[in-house]
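Weekly puzzle thread! Below is a chain. First person to post its structure in token form gets bragging rights.
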Amino acid sequence: MIKENYHVIGVMSGTSLDGVDLAAIEFQIKNQKWSYKITKSETVSYSPKWISQLKEAVNYSESELLQLNEDYTDLLGELIKSFIKINGISNLDAVCSHGHTILHQPHNGFTLQIGNLPKIVKIIGEKVVCDFRVQDVQLGGQGAPLVPIGDRILFSEYDFCLNLGGFSNVSFEENGNRMAFDISPVNTVLNFYANKLGLDYDDKGKIARSGKVNSDLLNELNALDYYKKSFPKSLGFEFVKEVVLPLIEKHSIKVEDKMHTFTEHIAVQTNLALAEKNGKMLITGGGAYNDFLIERMQFHLPKIEIFIPENKTLEFKEALIFALLGVLKLRNEINVLSSVTGAKSDHSSGIIYKY
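Winning reply:
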């Protein structure tokens, strides 16, 4: 008999390298309606050494990647084990872990999330559901975004769900299908320039606000080929490293102006990405704290009603949804939508490692 209640941990590490998000979650399903409660949560920051390694890994050789995967699985396993112990968590159905994306090249039939090796089960001592993207790419999909099914199940009262993390992605219903895609880079670029000023990030967008728009740079960014593509489509850090940053660096302007211009670019592309310009929009992810970015989005989308949720959902939404994906996998139910990824069919993705 399929259960009504689940107690799981969701684990997520995003491209913005803020750290590892861990959330203990209680799910309940009654009359085909899901509800959730985040009971414990924590973001564990990466050490400077790990940030450096994860940034550089896109250039690693195959043998270096294999070693990194081993080391990162050890790190992730120990972080999860510690989270369970410190918070006195017991009676878990599973730990549902995304891992960390190093390479994402769906056009080459390839995506790599490290931290999903079988040994993670022995380190944690719990059942683990992980590696949610690979199967979708094998089925001809983008392997991303995976969050939209969670948007449909848990946040159906909103017309749009926008996440502002390393990249922005949006999901919405269209003719009975869930649609979703990556819009543009966000914190991968803004944090890069904040780092140049000796900061981890631009607090509330104050630095970007102090700059001014460079029209030439803005026009060049808005003209990039990715924005002309129809969805499904997704972005990886390679796009930032190989396309976006070299374009910005061609312009000899102040860092503040680069950040201001890129913030405007994000807002412009968000507006262009939405066919409908009215309704209710839920915004989550670290970018939701960027007051200047939210103001620019509201300027370009005056008829959209923006909602920013309470802190736990705001900060741990992706961990929450990967926890849900893991539960759906345990139930052998669809957790990836082909309307979103472009795969041959909807499917139940992920690997279950039993303890």
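Puzzle host: Confirmed. Bonus trivia for everyone else. The longest strand covers residues 33-44.
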